[in-house]
Amino acid sequence: MTDLKSILKLTIMEKRDVALAVLFGFIAGIAGVALLASSGYLISKAALTTQMTTLVVMAACLKLFGFVSALSRYAERLYSHRATFTMLSNLRVSFFERLSPRAPTLFQRYRSGDLLARIVGDVESLQNFLLRVFYPPLVLALVFSSTIFFASFFSAALAFVLFVGFLLTVIVVPALFAWQKRKTASKTRVSRAALSTEATEFLYGFRDLKIYQQLEQKERQLEQLVESYAKDQWNEGRRENYSQSINAFVAMLVSLVVLGLGAYYVAAGELDGLYLAMLVMLSLALFENVTPMAVFPAYYEDSRRAASRLDKVVEEPYQNEGENSLPAGSLGIEVKNVSYTYPEEERPALANVSVRLPSGSKTAIVGPSGSGKSTLMQVLLRTLPVDSGSIFINEENINNLDQQKLWSRINVVLQENHFFFGTIRSNLAIANEEATEEQLKAALEKAELGAFSLSAKVEEKGQNLSGGEKQRLAIARAMLKNEALWLLDEPVSSIDGLTARAIYKRLFEQGKDHTFVVISHDLSDLEQMDQIIVMEQGRIVEIGSYDSLMERQGYFYGMKQIEKSVFA
Ligand SMILES: Nc1ncnc2c1ncn2[C@@H]1O[C@H](COP(=O)(O)OP(=O)(O)OP(=O)(O)O)[C@@H](O)[C@H]1O
After folding, report:
1. What's the CA gap between 226 and 234, in Å, rounded?
2. 490 CA from centroid of ligand 1 (Å)
3. Which of 535, 529, 558, 532 is nearest to 543 (CA)?
4. Is there a single domain that holds both residue 280 and residue 406?
5. What is the pLDDT of residue 125?
6. Is residue 179 part of a domain?
7. Which one of 342, 353, 488 would you pick to mutate in the ligand 1 pocket, going by the greatest count of ligand atoms within 8 A of its CB?
8. Quick check: helix, strand or coil at residue 320?
9. What number is the ipTM of this complex?
């Protein structure tokens, strides 16, 4: 039940609708029992009496019970479904709120298809929690206790039989199936997640699979997953039917016992024969209500697993969210003894890194691939938490900063930037919604994208743009934001040297007093930077101005010599 704690809390928040659903469920159930019981009584009475008034009153009662039962069932459905959909929407909101701060490290732990299966499939599964798990036992307990109380006025023994029937069909049989289901561990959810994960990967990698002629093999793998998912679903359906049949069988047995025992008491003169048909009909109608309990174990287990899979995604602690914001004006950074190792990796991506990036300075970070440059950028952005050490911006520890407020002060261009389906204009507007048409056009010009119209179409993920165009659009976006700190991770790696030089020139003109941190593989034009940080295997191996590093003839000098010999 602990797995269901959070979903229970969200359900109870809808207390008014839940209470009304229980109330109308009870009225519908009891009216149904009254309808059949009174019809049994009417049949017996009609056989024994010729008094028309009694029969007319009884027939009117029958009609009334029929109406009440139908209307209450409608109201029960209305309130229970309303509560369910409100609860589901609250669940989606609260899940997303807990998910979003964990987003930066989420994909290190989950594959996107698995996440999708959880966010969509598991949340959907929880719609059954209120409808099939939470309130049917409550309604049944109320209907059974009132009916048993009523039956006890006619025969204590028959009331006891009904009570035993209640224990068997509402508690014992469902509990047995719930226990068995838990033991056999439903594989359906796992195979659904596996199918979703592989299908997503298949779609992402479709082109590469085709080029490497691996499409058929992957398709076969997917077909196997589909088969196993279908088989698991079929097995689950079979178990559900089995549970339903057993419950209906037990219910029928109880009604037979009521009939047999009732007949015996009538013969023994301990029960008025007038009531026998009524009690048998009452029993039949009462046990008709237990049908939902047959599917209870399946839905209980389903809800428990779905809730625990959702909780697992958001249970990982994430870096404490601070509240402070950065002061207006220029920003300087100090990194002190920062280390970071990716989860499940042995080698640190950053090892004891310390560096000062004074406000208004222009810093380049260079080093071989995999040396930790992008990781340093990510810890500066706080999208990765540091394992040890601290980072200060204007003497404020970034852990004390509100993440949104921190990001609002940084212009970021990453190696991979996302572009939304829409137009150039809509993709630029996410950086500055208030930018005028002129400002948007000016940003495009400065990023050497002047030939593009603002209304030009952008396909999903910017598929219709070249690698260099995407980088220029990302730079234009950062230029529109125009904050005092720029973090640029290989912003011009796909752009030709001449255009790249022109873009840098405009960037540095625009951000004359701003702080720039630029990761670059290209070692040319670094003379214009105030300092160059050289990284290798997660460490800073050299730091200084272009001239001082060249004079020192160390690591950077060596890299320059190699570059010269390669391009000579
Ligand atoms: N998500 C990740 N999970 C595990 N290890 C990672 C992850 N991202 C990077 N690494 C590892 O961390 C190290 C540093 O990677 P990083 O991306 O910071 O290097 P880089 O210097 O930016 O490389 P490049 O110039 O190729 O972009 C590498 O050894 C890399 O394999």
Report:
1. 12
2. 14
3. 532
4. no
5. 83
6. no
7. 342
8. coil
9. 0.96
pLDDT score for 319: 60
Q: Do 408 and 308 reside in the same domain of the chain?
A: no
Q: For residue 468, which phi and psi values (nearest 5 degrees)?
A: -70, -35
Give the span between the Cα atoms of 182 and 111, in whole angstroms: 26
Q: Going by C-beta distance under 8 Å and a sequence separation of 6 or more, which residues neighbour residue 372? A: 349, 350, 353, 535, 537, 538, 539
Mean pLDDT per 10-residue run, the chain (568 residues)? 79 91 95 92 82 82 91 95 92 85 74 79 86 88 94 94 92 84 69 85 88 88 92 85 88 93 93 90 90 80 85 72 78 94 90 94 93 93 90 91 87 90 92 90 92 91 91 94 93 89 92 93 85 95 93 89 74
Q: How confident is the model at residue 440, as a pLDDT?
A: 93
Cα separation of 442 and 452, whole Å?
12
Q: How far is the CA of 370 from the centre of ligand 1 (A)?
A: 5
Predicted pLDDT at 392: 94
Give the count of domains, the chain: 2
CB atoms within 10 A of CB 30: 24
> Is residue 39 in some structural domain?
yes
**Three-state SS string across 34-76, please?**
HHHHHHHHHHHHHHHCCCHHHHHHHHHHHHHHHHHHHHHHHHH
**In this predicted structure, what is the pLDDT of residue 311?**
84
Q: What single-letter DSSP state applies at residue 300?
A: H
Instruction: State the residue range of the domain holding 514.
Output: 333-420+462-567
Look-up of token digits 């080029």: 211
Q: How remote is the CA of residue 377 from the centroid of ligand 1, in Å? A: 11
Q: Is residue 457 part of a domain?
A: no
Residue 415 and residue 292 share a domain: no
Question: Domain with 146 in it: what CATH number?
Answer: 1.20.1560.10
The protein residue with its alpha carbon nearest to ligand 1, atom 5, reads 342
The tokens of 238 are what?
């079979």
Contact call for residues 186 and 302 (beta carbons, < 8 A)? yes
Domain harbouring 414, CATH code: 3.40.50.300
| 276 and 416 in a common domain | no
3-state SS, one letter per residue, for 415-480:
CCCCCCCEEHHHHHHCCCCCCCHHHHHHHHHHCCCCCCCCCCEECHHHCCCCHHHHHHHHHHHHHH
User: What was the pLDDT predicted at 320?
Assistant: 56
Q: Decide if 554 is inside a domain.
A: yes
Ligand 1 atom 11: residue of nearest CA? 349
Report the phi/psi class of residue 389: left, alpha or beta, with left for phi > 0 and alpha for psi in -120 to 50.
Answer: left
CA of 374 to the centre of ligand 1 (A): 7
In this predicted structure, what is the pLDDT of residue 109? 74
Entry pTM: 0.68
Please report the pLDDT score of residue 184 as a whole number: 61
